[in-house]
Amino acid sequence: MNGNPKVVSLLRGKGKPAEGTAQLVETLRLQVVEALRERLNIMFDGADDLLFEFAERATNNQDRRLFFDTMRAVRLDRKNMTTRFCDNYSKGFDAAFPVPGSREADGELSLQKNEAVELDIAVSNMAAKADGLYKTTLWDIGGRVKTLVENHHAPMSIDALAPLTICRAFRSAAETLNVGSDVELVVFKLFDRLVISELADLYFKALNFLKQQGVQSAHSGYGPGHVPSARPGGTLRGDMPNGEATATHAPRGFSDQFGQTAAQPEFRAPAGLAASMMTSPALDPQSLASLQRLSATPPDAAAYSNASLAADLAAASQGLTILGWTPRQTAAYVQRASLVGHMFNDILADPHLPNSLRVQFDGLRLSTMKVALKDIAFISDPDHPVRGLINELATMASTARTGGPEHQARIAELVSQIQQQFDIAAESLRKPPPEIELIATDQAERFIEQQMAQTATRRQAIVAKVRRIIAGELHLRTSGTPISDEVRPLLNSLWAPMMAMHLLHHGPESAEWKQGFAELDQIVAMLDPARDDQRSEALRRELRAELATAFKAVGLAEARINDALNGFEAALGKLIHPGQPNQPSADPSPDAVPPPVLHAATAADATENVTELLEQLVQPGAWFLVHDHDRNEGRWMKAVAYYAGLDCAAFAEFDGSNTLLLKSRMLLDDLLVRRTVPIDLDPAARAALDRYLARAA
């Protein structure tokens, strides 16, 4: 048995670990679990778009249905899956999983169902892929973990960070879906694409954490990419040579070490920008003008107001001396204000930001500067609550035009309320601390790169939302009408892009948007086999000319327009002269199929549908104008969770404080009379809510 290289003697781990080692392991475990939780949330947030992409490329309705069934299952069970995944991974981190080939690991493979074998193969393939992708980093991490376990008796599995441990934890978590193996395999495909393929940052941070704590590699020095260093084993930071712990602080976590998530390689700060901003700090013209407008407000002689602070920052950025500020304090304040100004300039440069919201976002500039002046973590930590909030509000605002004036008004109210919650009194910033921290060039570069990534994310959010809205509308308006392959290019490649441009540039209340739907209704009427009166030569000629003009007006290629319109004419010809081959089928276009929505309630399943409705509406992080019955007022709050077992929903302020619990019936009653209003719902949730309100009315 001892000759088996895969068997590790349990006797080595019997020694008691030093306190410093135990702290190190616990910090590592907590940080890895949190990083995986964040990665899993990114997977769930991106699941709709990816599954929609898969559905678009599906060649038949069965596959299409499979992707939409998966979308629904993931939406409803993401909370349970996340919790179970983190619990399972923590257990795998603490104890070695069964070695391959053992009875426990294989579960008597010959007796397993084919579906279980297929899922196990999928898990093995994902783990093998990750082993190949991160071979060098995993080899280095493995040597250091081996040192912890064998030399320092660390309470962890030697395979704690192995991809197979992560994949097996997800395999077990996916069982909570209680769906068929075909849906589970699609979920594994999501996990592979959005988690396994994006673990480089996690492993990079884990390796650097171990290096920072002085953990040496047990490997001999001959391995993939290994650079020989100090003798394996040795003493860990926080451990005395005799095994007793020193009175040091607990090991720093990933975010403490690195300050932020590593920037995506495609986002790089413009050469020299950060250096010039930090070495010779000054405000950009837009930020300077904004502060000067604020400083023009008559100051209050009895207090240090926002106008006073704005005037001081503007003057300091122009090289003037501020009473009570040393050169170091002045430079630090202008550095931070300059980076915040850069952030807001990017937000305000978004052409999709409605003009009605631009003034409000510019008004957030000074409030956000004050947060950065007070707390350097706003610059160094991408997960800082206010920084995340500003980016979140900017994303919502950039997609606001798609919801119409009422939606824009709700977002404007939300921005105003949130600003009041995080605003800091100017008096507390009147005199900077003497040893205020200056910002290094590399720190400023990371901040700029992270904001560039946020800008790209906002663009993707706009495209994804517009795409879902148009796909949903197309599905609803063509439902029940046979759509042949000859007509699909007209709807998917011409009408849909045209409507996307109308929605982005003009909004849903515009004449262009309404005219586009009038044209679609004409197309559908002509394709209706029972509407012979709609296919006269005059009507067909008139519609073709109208469509060609509309498509050309938004810049679509003329050859593409002619091909699609010819296909449409061919489909109409078969309706006018029936009996020809290749009759249109009722198979809807993959581009026209939206995410699934809740079915209409019946008396038998009304309770279940209400639960599904609330699970769709009360998504963690979703914004609501919630009616607080105790205060008898509306409050802008974020959804925390919907607890079906307790029959209630939880909401909280943007920073997680002041939780409010509402019973389901009370929440539904408030939604019915518009005392509680959700903001920025996705089309499926909006359709489900509209149906509920229509039935209740």
Note down, in words, how this protein is organized:
The protein is mostly helical and 697 residues long. Helices cover 59% and strands 4% of the residues. It has a five-stranded antiparallel β-sheet with strand order 4-3-2-1-5, sandwiched between helices. The longest helix has 39 residues, at 19-57. The relative contact order is 0.07.
- Low-pLDDT segments, ≥5 res: 1-13, 98-113, 220-234, 240-250, 255-265, 581-608
User: How would the global form be characterised?
Assistant: globular
Sheet/helix structural class: mainly alpha
Strand numbers in spatial order across the main sheet: 4-3-2-1-5
Taking all residues together, what is the mean pLDDT? 78
Q: Please report which band the strand proportion falls in: under 5%, 5-15%, 15-25%, 25-35%, 35-45% or over 45%.
A: under 5%
- Counting DSSP H or I runs of 4 or more residues, the number of helices is 25
**What is the helical fraction, as a range of percent?**
55-70%
Q: What separation lies between the terminal Cα atoms?
A: 73 Å
Q: Count the strands?
A: 5
Query: What characterizes the major β-sheet?
Result: 5 strands, antiparallel
